[in-house]
Write a structure and sequence with these properties.
- By secondary structure, this protein is mostly helical.
- The chain contains three helices and no strands.
Amino acid sequence: MMALSCAEARDLASDLLDGELSQELERAVDEHVTGCPTCPALYRALLAVHHELERLRHEEEPREGRGSA
């Protein structure tokens, strides 16, 4: 298994949330985040932003359909 540095894990975090990583890289990021004293807080913040963007994206979809009728 590959070991990632904090910088490498941060660089891959967005791709992980978007489902764009191989299983090997997903495991490597997950292992780094669970074993690192610094990265879990950063990962949780990124996850919160990602969820909020998804919520807003889904909130906007119905409005777009109504305005074009």
